[in-house]
């Protein structure tokens, strides 16, 4: 038996600790997606299985792209006016909306993002009308105060990187920041939890902007673009006022939930386990690419022989 003293001569090498690479997490692509269905998130986002759902993004992507282009066209017109090259109103015209929408639609088509409905032309005309209304109603107040569109921000939160893309960052007359987020849909009804999710997204964006600028924005405006088609009492805006202490408290709670979800995701990644014991909501499952082989709902979607 070895003498106890002989252990003293043993040299024990300290295990080298691997530096952990911080992962980047976004509220929409990671946290909300994981919370919607852990299995779908694991397969599509983490393992990188290709999803057919990108075609469903057409409507939202088109609206976002054209609104961003309209702002750039406004800035271009201002430059022309300052250079003495024109005296016309800097607000983009209806013809500009049509031209930019056609360009954006072609770009999306080249990336394989197309409408899922066969009535393409009808859908395109509807979006065109919506955007013309937006340009006319909001353009002259909103475009001059926009600082940037499609703004990508990232903040180091210690264990992970918080990432987000904001549709618009604007500065009001008092020099305070505002975040605008466009949703290509009608105002959600009260019994849906969509509004809660969008509010959660805005609370996280509020924190992200604070990490970058040192202060919270004065407010976030969720803009439901399809409301502009309503003839009677459209309600396109949902405003979250960050001067209200209650909403600052909500930001802290949302960030806690965000960090806890990041921990859960990292655990699943480590174990390679994306198992679930109950299905996601009906709307999500009915368009999920994994539904035929999903252990918790394949009975609802049996494979039919050709
Ligand atoms: S079918 Fe439903 S429960 Fe199954 S992976 Fe897809 S979204 Fe999740």
Write the layout of secondary structure elements.
Blueprint: E1 24-26, H1 27-36, H2 38-46, H3 58-82, H4 94-110, H5 120-137, H6 139-142, E2 146-156, E3 161-171, E4 177-183, H7 194-213, E5 219-224, E6 237-241, H8 245-271, H9 282-286
Parallel strand pairs: 1-3, 4-5
Antiparallel strand pairs: 2-3, 3-4, 5-6
Helix pairs in contact: 1-2, 1-8, 3-4, 4-5, 7-8
Bound molecules: iron/sulfur cluster.
Organism: Methanococcus aeolicus (strain ATCC BAA-1280 / DSM 17508 / OCM 812 / Nankai-3)
Domain PD-(D/E)XK endonuclease-like: 33-295
InterPro entries: PDDEXK-like_dom_sf (IPR011604), PDDEXK_AddAB-type (IPR038726)
Oligomeric state, counting identical vs distinct chains: single chain
Overall radius of gyration: 24 Å
Q: Low-confidence spans: pLDDT under 50, at least 5 residues?
A: none
CATH architecture descriptor: Alpha-Beta Complex
Q: Helix-strand pattern, N to C?
A: EHHHHHHEEEHEEHH
Gross geometry: globular
The amount of beta strand, in percent, is 5-15%
CATH class bucket: Alpha Beta
- The count of helical stretches stands at 9
Please provide the count of β strands. 6
Instruction: Tell me the span between the first and last alpha carbons.
Output: 73 Å
Kindly report the average pLDDT value: 89
Largest sheet, strands/sense/barrel: 6 strands, mixed
Structural class by SSE content? alpha/beta
Predict the CATH topology: Lambda Exonuclease, Chain A
| Share of helix, binned | 40-55%
List all distinct small molecules, including ions and cofactors, that are bound in this structure. iron/sulfur cluster
Organism: Methanococcus aeolicus (strain ATCC BAA-1280 / DSM 17508 / OCM 812 / Nankai-3)
InterPro entries: PDDEXK-like_dom_sf, PDDEXK_AddAB-type
Pfam families: PDDEXK_1 (PF12705)
Protein name: PD-(D/E)XK endonuclease-like domain-containing protein
